[in-house]
Design brief:
The protein has a single domain, classed as 3-Layer(aba) Sandwich (Rossmann fold). Helices cover 36% and strands 17% of the residues. A nine-stranded mixed sheet has the order 11-6-5-4-1-2-3-15-16, with helices on both faces. Strands 12-9-14 form a three-stranded mixed sheet. A two-stranded parallel ribbon has the order 7-10.
């Protein structure tokens, strides 16, 4: 048995791969490397470079590696971008997921864990928000994820597939062992951007909206450490393999922090009083969203280890410092860090795969 991790070269996906490998699982990664990095994939884990919507490729990977479970991270995730280019999000997040789910059903994959989002709730009437709250997204990103949840539910009802929708709140932090973290320079995660500003990589940090109906006027979010999040995935996988029914769970801690709270924490941990500038609201941002996470705790026995904002910030800052040091010592190949060699990847677009099997290539990273 093997676990296919889509988007496994990205931020959350790379943490998931390390967690699965640490647990003794056989893992294969599918990623188009649009925002991920070859070096972020754990050593000796096969990396297939391709699209989740390529059913010929996905079917072949499932058969060749004996995949019995899929953990699906691959997606576009920036809310304002989804407002500007909704069709891109419906293609990448919804259409490609439909193709992946269909392939899973046709190849008799037993378990499917979907990386969903708290954005499916929109602006919830009550917080903390429970899994049975109305789903009323306010952005194409949220709708693209909700559509996938619905497709997955209906496909499972018509087949033997068992699934879990995990609705993430705000994922932050980095691997406590320093193996991986948020490495995309275009990332819009608040804690990452604040850490970059503290380290001098950005001239200032913008606060988008200071007139929300919250105590300090800025948005409130539930920040979950990425390591606790991937632990929840492992617990869900065990739960499904034990024969449990499909389920939908929130992944958060049950308490929130405002944008200004987070900025204060980054300043405190870094010791840097960096420049902060107020800016207008962004389209698609909810004012307050905090998870009711008791269902995940009681159903899975999930016990978070890093439920502390200062710890999350400290791990994020440590990873940013590591990135900064490695980038200053990069090899002659653009984007390749000293932390690893150029690892082999299987380039598996239809034009690159010969009749007798995929080609093993070494390709450079691009930051």
């Amino acid at each position: 048995m093997a676990v296919l991790v889509t988007g496994g070269a990205g931020y959350i996906g790379s943490h998931m791969v390390y967690q699965l490998v640490d647990a003794g699982e056989t893992v294969v990664v599918l990623d188009n490397l649009s925002t991920g990095f070859q070096w972020a994939v754990a050593e000796d884990v096969p990396l297939i470079v391709g699209e989740t919507g390529d059913q010929t490729l996905v079917g072949r990977v499932i058969r060749d590696y004996g995949v019995d479970a899929i953990i699906h991270f691959a997606a576009s995730i920036v809310v304002p971008d989804s407002v500007r280019d909704p069709l891109l999000y419906y293609r990448n997040n919804t259409s490609n997921s439909r193709a992946l789910i269909e392939c899973a059903v046709h190849t008799d994959v037993k378990h499917f864990i979907f990386s969903s989002t708290a954005a499916v709730y929109g602006n919830p009437g009550e917080t903390p928000v429970r899994e049975d709250a109305p789903t009323l997204p306010i952005s194409p990103y949220g709708w693209s994820k909700l559509m996938t949840e619905i497709m997955l539910r209906d496909a499972a009802n018509a087949s033997g597939l068992h699934y879990a929708n995990l609705r993430y709140f705000n994922v932050a932090g980095a691997d406590p062992h320093g193996r991986t973290g948020q490495s995309n320079r275009a990332a819009t995660h608040l804690i990452k951007m604040a850490a970059e500003t503290a380290l001098g990589l950005r001239p200032m940090l913008e606060v988008f909206g200071t007139d929300y109906p919250t105590p300090d006027g800025t948005c409130i979010r539930d920040y979950i450490h990425v390591s606790d999040l991937v632990t929840a995935h492992c617990e869900v996988l065990r739960h499904l393999r034990a024969g449990a029914p499909s389920l939908t769970l929130n992944c958060g801690y049950g308490h929130g922090f405002s944008v200004l709270d987070v900025i204060g924490a980054v300043k405190r941990v870094s010791g840097v009083d960096f420049n902060v500038v107020n800016a207008p609201r962004r389209a698609g941002d909810a004012s307050r969203i905090v998870a009711a996470s008791d269902l995940a705790r009681t159903t899975l026995g999930w016990q978070p280890r890093f439920d502390d904002l200062l710890t999350i910030v400290a791990h994020a800052l440590a990873w940013e410092r590591e990135l900064q040091a490695q980038r200053s010592r990069r090899h002659h190949q653009r984007g390749q860090f000293e932390r690893g060699h150029v690892r082999p990847a299987i380039i598996a677009s239809p034009s690159a795969v010969p009749p007798d099997g995929p080609i093993d290539h070494k390709i450079p990273e691009i930051t």
